[in-house]
Amino acid sequence: MSPTIALIAHDRKKDDIANFAKQYTPILSRYRLIATGTTGQRIHDRSKLEIECLLSGPLGGDAQIAAEVATGEVIAVIFLIDPLYAQPHEPDIQALLRICNVHNVPLATNLATAEAIIANFAKNRFAYLIFNPVSGQGNAEKDLTLIQQLLKPQLHLDIHLTTPDRSSAELAQEAIASGADLIIASGGDGTISAVAGALIGSQIPLGIIARGTANAFAVALGIPTNIRAACELILSGITRVVDAAQCNQHPMILLAGIGFEAETVERADREAKKRLGVLAYILAGMQQLNEHSVFETELEIAGITSQCQAAAITIANAAPPTSLMAQGMGQVIANDGLLEVTINTQNTKIEAMDAIVDLLGAALMRRAARREDTICLRTGQIKVNTNPPQKVVVDGEIIGTTPVTIECIPQGLTVIAPLEASKPADEQPPVTEPELILGVTDE
Ligand SMILES: O=C(CO)COP(=O)(O)O
Predict the structure, then answer these.
(1) Could you tell me the fold of the domain covering 124-237?
(2) What is the 3-state secondary structure (H, E, C) of 17-33?
(3) Which has more confidence, 196 or 292?
(4) Of 108, 224, 297, 417, which cross-links 113 as Cys (Cβ 3.0–4.6 Å)?
């Protein structure tokens, strides 16, 4: 499904096409290249470009390319014709030219036109789409068709589907290596997070077409969760730079949950999410409350160690207001260079439910939850150890158990997202002194 350019030249034009390929190697290398046999070999020898060599022209190479134009992803044919000599396979040549016209594929039969086509391609952004066909509740095939209809007229779109053997993270590495101008992730938060994780520090913009159950990252950044609107945003090219984070060795863009949240995510399996959508998480959370328990916790922030009992610890880089357990500070700011930490210390199920209602209030009012048994603060780095060890979920995936070290990577990710109605820096909530809020003794 990669956008393909076909290159062909008659014998007395072979030097021209080899030099052309050498000159435009940086642009041509972004595409899948096919060629008739001898032309392909000459191009490879001169430019070292990767090129699929089909049969030689007189043996059917032109006909093979015509078939690709008719059925494949050929976006241009560059066919340097010798106008002064007749060819034995003239009917094949005419068939190829005709098929290009039938399918309205750009066709250059001399160098000047070839250069015009390439100059035009150089202006197009090259987008690598990583599409997870098993995300969410929708119809993946229809979704992909719609995405193609919306994006292809304006982007060169290289589409790659995730499979059990090709993870989103692997595809993201391939996307970076391909030199794409833009990498688009389409799937649930797991897919978006894996692709984003690979892009941290790369400055390559990440486009998001959310098709998952919660779509927390898209919602947190105001990215539409409707496919059409998400594609329009991608075409607008408006970017925002936000923070990323790292939890032990794992990239993190949303949040890490220790205790309650991790157990809840584990309960809400894919089958339940497919059937019930977001309700699956709510039901799992309610069931989890019945098994409410606390664990001994040791936190290290800015070199200060503190102990407390906790039932749930949430450390967020970005989160929508609906991620209630992350709302201790009233909002999670995605570009403040800090992580929002919310620790619920309630001993009983009733107290825990009461605290969750307060977190809802905090999210609605965008103000820190003011209760003694909910600890909240902002920090750039935190270490958490627990007794007994607790499961840790990062961006929806269980990554192991405590201890964990989580660190914010300020301005680590460039995302195609609506510009936020941002507050000036001096209006942002101040960094809270951890020891004041925790109210516990230093080591
Ligand atoms: O004959 C050709 C096109 O019609 C070119 O074929 P070769 O690239 O194999 O020489």
Answers:
(1) Rossmann fold (3.40.50)
(2) HHHHHHHCHHHHCCCEE
(3) 196
(4) 108
ipTM: 0.96
DSSP H or E run through 38: helix 37-47
Q: Whose CA is nearest to atom 4 of ligand 1?
A: 57
Of all protein residues, the one whose alpha carbon is nearest to atom 2 of ligand 1 is 57
Torsion angles phi and psi, residue 268, rounded to 5: -85, 90
Task: Please give the share of the chain, as a percent, with pLDDT higher than 90.
Answer: 67
Which residue puts its alpha carbon closest to atom 6 of ligand 1? Answer: 57
Every domain of the chain with CATH number 2.60.200.40 lies at 252-409+424-438
Q: Whose CA is nearest to atom 10 of ligand 1?
A: 38
CATH 2.40.50.140 fits 252-409+424-438, yes or no: no
pLDDT of 442 strictly over 60: no
* 310 Cα–ligand 1 center, Å: 73
Find out whether the beta carbon of 8 lies less than 6 Å from any atom of ligand 1. Answer: yes
Per CATH, the number for 4-122 is 3.40.50.1380
Segments of the chain assigned to CATH 3.40.50.1380: 4-122
Ligand 1 centre to CA of 119 (Å) is 25
Q: Provide the pLDDT for residue 277.
A: 66
Positions at the binding site for substrate: 10, 14, 36-39, 56-57, 89
CA 105, distance to chain mean position in Å, is: 31
**Spatial separation of the C-alpha atoms in residues 355 and 373, rounded to whole Å:** 8
d(CA 255, CA 314): 7
Beta bridge partners of 414: 241
Question: Range(s) for CATH 3.40.50.10330 in the chain?
Answer: 124-237
pLDDT value of position 443 = 30
Which of 47-51, 176-180, 275-279, 392-396 is least confident?
275-279
Among candidate residues 11, 16, 62, 143, the one labeled active-site is 62
pLDDT at res. 433: 44
For the Cβ of 64 lying below 6 angstroms from any atom of ligand 1, the answer is no
Residue 79 Cα to ligand 1 middle (Å): 9
The question of whether 62 is a catalytic residue gets the answer yes
Give the tokens for residue 338: 């800090």
Residue among 39, 77, 82 to mutate when testing ligand 1 (max atoms within 8 A of CB) = 39
- HSE-up (13 A, CA, CB side) for residue 419: 5
Measured distance CA(319)–CA(333) in Å, rounded: 8
Global model pTM greater than 0.95? no
410 CB under 6 A from ligand 1?
Answer: no
